[in-house]
Amino acid sequence: MLHQGRFADSERVAVAAAEAAGAVRDARPGRRDATRGVLLMTAVGPAAVAGGDVAAYVAEAAALAAGLGGPVSVHGTSFSVASVRMQAVYAYAVRRDYGRALREAAAVRPLEDLPGTISRARHLLDIAQAHVDAGETGEATGVLGQALRMAPEWFSHQEAARLLVGEIMDRKARLSDPLKDLARAVGGGGEARYYRASA
Asked: Residue 199 has what pLDDT?
């Protein structure tokens, strides 16, 4: 459904699954709550892309995560307070609500709280997007530099990184050395411009 652009249907299915998971009588309530939380977080992406309000999903998932006392692994993913905050940053960055995105990001320590290099680097791209939307190109450049150092091969293939670097370059009369490094990493050679389609 997501690949077909059926965002409302995707959200509806995820919410229905979350409700069903919450109703299951499980001898391990932590696993039940983590499953419900993961499914609520699955609803956040399509809701955000469709322009819907994600705050209720985030609040409920955060409350479930807080009650677990630590990360719980379910269905191949780790559910925790940090994973909820990471998904919230993504959702608010997608909606261009940079204030909320940056507030959520302040509660996450990528290296300590998030599992996996790619997950951490992807989170940094969302933070960079929020800084760009806030007009904070210096901060965005620094965050993108962290993502590049963390996962250079992955970074060089990310369209989101390429668009962000191009947007920062378009706002700068002169390019700093860190920005030139980012441009080279995404194939810009430190000179080429990349243009982002207007929303």
From this structure: 40
Is the pTM value of this prediction over 0.85? no
User: 3-state class of 140 per DSSP?
Assistant: helix
Nearest-angstrom CA–CA distance, 165 and 196: 10
Q: Look up residue 84 and give its amino acid.
A: V
CA distance linking residue 43 with residue 153, whole number of Å: 30
Please state, in angstroms and rounded to a whole number, the distance separating the CA atoms of residues 101 and 131: 9
Nearest Cα to 43, choosing from 75, 19, 77? Answer: 19
Per DSSP, 198 falls in state: P
Identify the CA nearest to 43 among candidates 104, 96, 98, 88.
Answer: 88
Structure tokens at 117: 């290099």
| Token reading at 122 | 């992807």
Res. 124: pLDDT tops 50 = yes
Q: Which among 135, 148, 134 has a CA at the least distance from the CA of 179? A: 148
What per-residue confidence (pLDDT) applies to 17?
Answer: 84
**Residue in 95, 91, 85 with CA at minimum distance from that of residue 63:** 85
Positive or negative torsion for Cα 160, 183, 153, 144: negative
Maximum distance among all Cα pairs of the chain, rounded to whole angstroms: 61
- Alpha carbon 142 to its chain's center: 17
Mean pLDDT computed over 74-81: 86
Q: Tokens 């998932």 sit at which residue?
A: 61
Band the pLDDT of 111: cuts 50, 70, 90: confident
